[in-house]
Write a structure and sequence with these properties.
This is Ribosome biogenesis protein Nop10. This protein is α+β, with helices and mostly antiparallel strands. The protein has 2 helices and 3 strands; from the N terminus they run βαββα. The chain has a 3-stranded antiparallel beta sheet with strand order 2-1-3. The chain starts with 5 loop residues before the first strand and ends in a 6-residue tail after the last helix. Bound molecules: zinc ion.
Length: about 60
């Protein structure tokens, strides 16, 4: 089963620890929530922009 758990895209700046949510926005700060797997955020992740597009499409097929 795929997980729909997402993490606040801005948690490193706003929170002391990752904030997870099942929605598409952080419940604490309102920032975009992004797919939490495989990593909350990685500047070297070539798929970072892809994940943001996937979120916008509401598409959960990010493997
Ligand atoms: Zn947040």
């Amino acid at each position: 089963m795929k997980s729909d758990i997402r993490v606040c895209s801005d948690w490193e700046a706003v929170h002391e620890r990752p904030v997870y949510t099942l929605g598409d926005a952080c419940p604490e700060c309102g920032a975009d929530a992004v797919n939490s797997a495989p990593a909350p955020f990685n500047p070297e992740d070539p798929h970072g922009s892809y994940r943001r597009r996937a979120r916008r499409r509401g598409n959960e097929t990010d493997e």
